[in-house]
């Protein structure tokens, strides 16, 4: 048995822009040095798909780690810092279960399917506005879709979308550990807090106990029963916006990035929304968007390596599906592949993405309509990349196409 600190591990420069632009070869080099572990300036990194699963089969040995992030950022007692301490992903045990149970019924596959008409109408309106242009930045286009869907799902005024969008752009950088964006994240938290509080007040003023129209009504009923405080409800609304915004935008943009390279697959997407669902699943394996960390809460031995309590472990959900151990031919983008194991783009364990069915439905419906209206897209590049830790993805994807 060896202590983790005694291992000779490959260093992954995860925070560097060149790393974000092409992380896969770096993970291959890391696995050539050690089968499942690498180091980085931000902590150790699990590089092997089976070990990610093994770690989450024993996830009681780890906890989520926003407290350390707030300390690192020097943001104790600030709006952004306090929100990071309170939100659902930073909770564990009964507190986490209570918050998750509150949301769970509104996030089933059935509920997600109920919103498909709304998703279709939203993307159609956006395409009416954008498609005639013939060329635009696809990332910017994609950013309006999830936020508009989310506002409509909770009956929020859509005039607010512009200011929410810039707040969410800032808050999407929360896990990047970048102090230069702290002030923008504080402002974003203030705007999102005021928006959520006003939304609650406006609905509470008109709501009848029997109303059960949308997620906001569901949460207000739990609050009326005394099982959710006003502050918790505000935090949940902010978290849902943050969790659903740039993740969905980035997956849609990464999808277009691949579709430009695979015109035959893209053409099939225009014909068949069921096939779009397969494409989205394959994108989530090939190019996910979220990489998160855990802190170990006890000493334990894994595959003969001693990992002490207090160790930071990164889980690269976005890229771990490219490990050859995840699936045969892992390096090839292929929506028709036989799925040996599910992708882990929505994470694993107790915090696994609650919004995954909404995200899947939204991106598949979006892709289907986009493929019908944005014909033969080509990338006029160059595209940029967001930092790898936290919410990774493409920053700017200029395209040219034939409007249909
Ligand atoms: C493609 C889009 C999305 C991706 C890739 C994604 C990814 C993830 C991942 C990886 C986690 C777990 C993080 C961790 O364990 O450290 C997570 C959690 C979560 N996501 Fe998503 N997400 C997406 C869309 C959404 C949407 C649309 C919503 C809601 C509207 C949402 C709500 C949540 C919530 C509430 C959690 C926390 C669950 C908990 O702590 O129990 N997500 N997401």
Task: Provide an overview of this structure.
The structure is a single chain. The chain is of the alpha+beta class and 404 residues long. The protein has a single domain, classed as Orthogonal Bundle (Cytochrome p450), CATH 1.10.630. The protein has helices spanning 17-21, 24-33, 49-57, 66-73, 79-86, 93-104, 109-114, 116-130, 138-153, 161-171, 182-206, 215-224, 230-261, 263-271, 273-286, 356-373; strands at 2-3, 37-38, 44-46, 62-63, 135-137, 290-296, 300-302, 305-307, 312-315, 374-379, 384-385, 390-391, 394-395, 398-403. Strands 2, 3, 4, 6, 9 and 12 form a 6-stranded mixed beta sheet that branches. A 3-stranded mixed beta sheet has the order 1-8-7, with no helix packed on it. A 3-stranded antiparallel beta sheet has the order 5-14-10. β2 and β3 (44-46) form a beta hairpin. α14 (263-271) crosses α15 (273-286). The mean pLDDT is 94. Protoporphyrin IX containing FE (HEM) binds at residues 64, 88-89, 100, 239-240, 243-244, 247-248, 251, 288-290, 292, 317, 345-347, 351, 353-355, 358-359.
